[in-house]
Amino acid sequence: MRLPYIPQWQRNLYLISLGVFVASIAFSIITPFLPIFLMQLGLKSNTSLWSGLVFSINSLAFGIMAPIWGSISDRYGKKPMMARAGLGMGLTYFLMAMVHNHIQLFVLRGINGLLSGYIPAAITLVAASSRPENLNYSLGIVQAASAIGNITGPLVGGITAKLLGIRGSMVFTGILLCIAAILPFAAKVKEEIVPKPKTSILKDIAATFQNRQLVILYTVWLLIQAALMAVFPTLPLLIGSISKQNAELYTGIIFSIVGVSTALGAPLVGRIRNYSTVNIFRWSLLACGALTALQGLATSIFALGALRFLFGFFNSAVTVAGNVLIAKSSDQNNQGSSFGMLNSIMSIGLVSGPIIGGYLGDHLGLSYSFFGGAVLLLAAYILSIFVSEPGAGKNYA
Questions:
Q1: Where are the transmembrane segments (predicted)?
Q2: Which CA distances in Å does 180 have to 17, 86, 174?
Q3: Measuring CA to CA, which of 65, 74, 192, 391 is 20 to 30 A from 351?
């Protein structure tokens, strides 16, 4: 019996998505347990401060290095960058399992951020190896794989922490990342590296800012990321104020439900062919803004959960369409730099969003972090009006 023929771009897509799924599980295994691990290390004061620092240093270091790794990937390929990130992060998790104090953990989390970039490299590889007519579908599948991994990770983390302890979970995470690193090579994912003129990394990064469309998209993505993160400090508190009983259970469900709808929505968005990508991006942004504001007005767990579920669908559309716009607006020889700069700028939103949301929640009330997030998304929508549909012959310089 002959097996059905699978085109190379589709083989690449499924194998890379499997790697993204494994890596996403690894990334979300340890995150919920880092505050507990700090206490196990003997930290008795300023636990909340150090928890924030240990979380933030990873994002900050990643934001610094993302454009550099992106530019290097344009020269030497995305597969080597996936291997470098997976093996490098895997090694830091093995070392984290052996730390003796919070300072060592902080330093290793920073090194982990410097070496990260597996999923951005995977997205860029999929964007480069997919046919233009299949780009939406391909990035939708990758987004779904990432979302499912993020949902699965905390469950796997809970099981491994119970069976192996937190240090054992870190070793398990390192093993998963090593598997993700070698998967593209073991599965013989093919990549075509297009020779490019010899330029410095700084010139590659600067070239992305000469592209007017990319600059607008970067600004929109910064606003989106800040808006998404603005609700994180107050969402658990809002859930607790709505339902004082079973608050922990409802918090876990409501945080996870966005991942579920994102995993369901991303492949569906990828199959939309008769509607322009930029319009999907704009109207989904507007819907996300409205749903974020409504979350701040929710008075029941059911209403909040339903709104978060719908938000996940539209957020998946924003993510898929936004990545397609970045890919199509970039020079093919410079896509790594384009996505690297995108991830660097998004890390600013990762850090600034919780600060904005926390300030609004403390000074004006919990609902206002949601209203602030909605305003940021509205600003992103207004700015997206200046984004044009990428197409042949368009010059964005």
A1: 12-37, 49-69, 106-128, 168-187, 215-243, 249-269, 281-303, 309-327, 339-360, 366-387
A2: 10, 6, 10
A3: 74
